Amino acid sequence: MKRILIGFVLGLAAVAAGVYFYFSKGLAPVATDSAPLPFEARLAGMALHARIAKEMPSQSPIQPDEANLVAGARVYRENCAECHGLPGQPETAIAKGMFPHPPQLFTGHGVTDDPAGETYWKAANGIRLTGMPGYKRSLSETQLWQVSLMLAGADKLPASATAVLREPAK
């Protein structure tokens, strides 16, 4: 039994030493264009989805009326569009250089099938190691909900909100 325990401890020490060597010698992929580590995306995604499911709000304190959707479009243009894109616009150079790649919210899948509470959680808290900042210290709760509701209904926005998103850059 003592030999098994010693073998187990030595095995753990060898694995820890190997991991330390791998990172301390600069062998780990850290550039934005490097391939992810094995299981990196899976483990990070699993943790993120579990945390969001546990903490995201289930109901919005504001209504997705036209005024809030237009305000959400303005908040989005000011704070989100550089990374997540605008309808009918090409992807920005900043977005092309990020890892993980930020989803382009008006192209393809988007977030219209995500609950607004999930988008609210992501915008408020940010996502570690992705470049997605948390905005709860810089935007009001109302602004966070406005942009979250606007994105949840991005496929059926009123013309006034769509017009804000399509305004030429200043």
What is the tally of beta strands? Answer: 0
Largest sheet: none
Helix content: 40-55%
Which regions are unreliable across 5 or more consecutive residues at pLDDT < 50?
none
State the end-to-end distance: 73 Å
Percent of sequence in beta strands? under 5%
- Class by alpha and beta content: mainly alpha
Give the overall average pLDDT.
92
Q: What can be said about this structure in brief?
A:
The chain is mainly α. Helix content is 54%, strand content 0%.
Question: Your description of this structure?
Answer:
The protein is mainly alpha-helical. It contains 8 helices and no strands. Helix 3 crosses helix 7, helix 3 (66-79) packs parallel to helix 8 (159-166) and helix 6 packs across helix 7. It is elongated.
What is the topology?
Blueprint: H1 2-24, H2 40-55, H3 66-79, H4 81-84, H5 93-96, H6 116-125, H7 141-152, H8 159-166
Helix pairs in contact: 3-7, 3-8, 6-7
